Amino acid sequence: MELQGVKEQHKSIWISTTGYRIFLELKSLIENPKTFDELIEVIKNDKYLKKEISKDTLRFDISTLRSAGCIISKPSKNNNYKLQLLYHPFNLNISDEELSLLIELRESLASELSLNEVFILNDLYDKIAALTFNNEQIQEISNSKLLFDINKNILKEISNPNITGKKVGIKYKSPKFGEEDTDIIPLKILYENKKVYLYAYNYKYKSDSYFEVSKILKINSVSLNKENEISPSFKVIYELKGEALNEFELKSYEKIINRQNDKIIVEAEVTNEFMFTQRLLLFGRDFKIISPDFFRTKLIDKIKLIQKGYRND
After folding, report:
1. Which residues pair with 222 in a beta bridge?
2. Count of other CB atoms within 10 angstroms of residue 303
3. To bridge 197 with a disulfide, which of 78, 141, 210, 306 should be the other Cys (CB 3.0-4.6 Å)?
4. For 208, phi and psi rounded to 5 degrees?
5. What is the dihedral of CA 95, 98, 99, 100, to 10 degrees?
6. Between the CA of residue 161 and those of 61, 76, 143, 156, 221, what are the distances in Å?
7. At what angle do helices 96-110 and 115-132 cross, to 10 degrees?
8. Span 256-268, average pLDDT
9. What is the mean pLDDT of the chain?
10. Does pLDDT of 162 surpass 60?
């Protein structure tokens, strides 16, 4: 008789539930200190165990880990009654050369990742560092952390869509004026050149500005209503050619209006003249302003002033 189908055979994989449970507890304690109840909850929610254990069983497991060479602090009022893993012999050994390569890899990846992915990468490196139990390596990974100066709470608050378009008072550490209170209208968060900027309308200068998020010290106030301030803007058309084309990235306020084999023509809606000028200067000799005349004249004067400064030196 010919079979019409094939009967699937499911293989069961047998494991030591006690051994698996103890390794799971070790993994949880490596991540962060936990109370007895928190560890019991971890075991209960595990997809393989799905079983609540007693505190006596957990005490036996902790004793087993200590016998294997782990140093685990006893719960007390001083540590909020949590078990803390102070040391374990299952260290990750990373040579100095391997550590340097890891740090270089993170630096290299930073320009290709989104802002959120950079923070995820930092967390991953922190976990890798913790596995070494090597204080020098832990410190070196921490010191080389990307965006280390960003206050995540402030970033979360200032990037909240609910305050976009509203008048917000902030305390800002200006490179020129020091700490000052200023009013802005947040528009969007930008991650460029391994730095995080808040693009916002600046009441002080009545124009759009870029604020380094790392220099925003505090959110003082948030208005209940949306604001209707509009920044003055003007269009700039420029030509780009040569080496600059290889690394050119179109900004949100730009569009390509003409493309040829050896050059492109770009139209930009400029709301922040300073930042746009800085962008153009990075292109070196590979750009040319087509219009407007007033902006071309200002840029030529600025370049002459820079050249004069170098001649004086």
Report:
1. 168
2. 12
3. 210
4. -75, 145
5. 120
6. 47, 42, 32, 10, 16
7. 170
8. 94
9. 87
10. yes
Are the CB atoms for 208 and 187 separated by under 8 Å? yes
d(CA 232, CA 207): 7
What's residue 287's pLDDT?
94
Residue 67 contacts residue 28 (beta carbons within 8 Å): no
Question: Phi/psi of residue 296, each to 5°?
Answer: -60, -40
Average pLDDT, stretch 151-169? 92
- What was the pLDDT predicted at 141? 94
Count of positions (residues) in the chain: 313
With 60 as the cut, is the pLDDT of residue 79 above it?
yes
Place of tokens 């047998």: 14
- For the segment 219-240, the average pLDDT, to the nearest whole number, is 84
Q: What is the 3-state secondary structure (H, E, C) of the chain?
A: CCCCCCCCCCCCCCCCHHHHHHHHHHHHHHHCCECHHHHHHHHHHCCCCCCCCCHHHHHHHHHHHHHCCCEEECCCHHHCCCEEEEECCCCCCCCHHHHHHHHHHHHHHHCCCCHHHHHHHHHHHHHHHHHHCCHHHHHHHHHCCCCCCCCHHHHHHHCCHHHCCEEEEEEEEECCCEEEEEEEEEEEEEEECCEEEEEEEECCCCEEEEEEHHHEEEEEEEEEEECCCCCCCEEEEEEEEHHHHHHCCCCCCEEEEEECCCEEEEEEEECCHHHHHHHHHCCHHHEEEEECHHHHHHHHHHHHHHHHHHHHC
Identity of the residue numbered 235: K
Cα-Cα-Cα-Cα torsion 236, 249, 257, 287, nearest 10 degrees, comes to: 50
pTM of the model: 0.58
Cis, peptide link before residue 292, omega less than 30° from 0: yes
User: What tokens were used for 167?
Assistant: 């008048």
Q: How confident is the model at residue 295 (pLDDT cuts 50, 70, 90)?
A: confident
